[in-house]
Amino acid sequence: MEGEVGTSLKCEMQGNGKWVNGIVVNESKSAKFPLSFWEIGVFGGVVLSYALGLACVYLTMPASDYSFLKLPRNLEDLQILRDHLESYTSDYTIQVLVGYCVVYIFMQTFMIPGTVFMSLLAGSLFGVFRGVALVVFTATAGASSCYFLSKLIGRPLVFSLWPDKLTFFRDQVARRKTRLLNYMLFLRVTPTLPNTFINVASPIVDVPYHTFFFATVIGIIPAAYVTVRAGITLGELQSVGDLYDMHSIATLFLIGLVTVTPTLIGSKN
């Protein structure tokens, strides 16, 4: 009887969805992004908050032509933005800092590409040490904002965009519960999984926020240092690919290997 019920249930679920590690995902609903009115309201509220923050920064800046203000998409855009902002940074440091933070966190929260250019800009405007501190703060705040937003309304998006990666990530997290911080550090330091995916998927696969937070703060420091340091010599860069030579990539993987070693040893015991 039990076998018949199980078979019947499985057949019924095959018609409406699919199994993902014991969880049934309704593919038709996931594809349509079924958000409730409350969830849409939360999303809209977050967007409005960032928009108000940017508006306040803009209104406190001196009257001038700000047509150069746009999200940089290449090194040429970034150099133009840097050249204009250099003259404002010394006189309006607070406004530039707040504006930078709001834009970076907004981009991280809503998975907008181009944060690497913002990291380069930090190095160009503020130097290595202040630039690294700024990037680590904004990247962590943006990743945390994305984490909590995904926890509320991100499940349909993750299942729709990255079903295979989500299955892999869930399996790895489940196997490393006792040393999850080491594994998350490894993911942050190395390009094994995209940071955007990690931010969105972590709450879906039950990565605790404190583990997510500490892994983010510590794990992004090496890459932030490489990028911010390159921003000081922005004019010498020919492409974004020049940021990471073989030496830099090998160093990041070595750091990642050191962080994940305790996890690998623990899984064998």
Automatic annotation (TrEMBL):
Keyword Amino-acid biosynthesis: no
Superkingdom per UniProt: Eukaryota
Transmembrane segments: 40-61, 97-122, 128-149, 207-228, 249-267
Ranges of residues in domain VTT: 112-231
InterPro entries: TM41A/B, VTT_dom
UniProt main location, coarse: membrane
Location in or out of the cell: Membrane
Matching Pfam families: VTT_dom (PF09335)
Keywords (A to Z) from UniProt: Membrane, Transmembrane, Transmembrane helix
Biological process per Gene Ontology, one example term: autophagosome assembly
Membrane topology according to the record: Multi-pass membrane protein
GO cellular component: membrane
Official protein name in the record: VTT domain-containing protein
Species this protein is from: Anisodus tanguticus
Lineage: Eukaryota, Viridiplantae, Streptophyta, Embryophyta, Tracheophyta
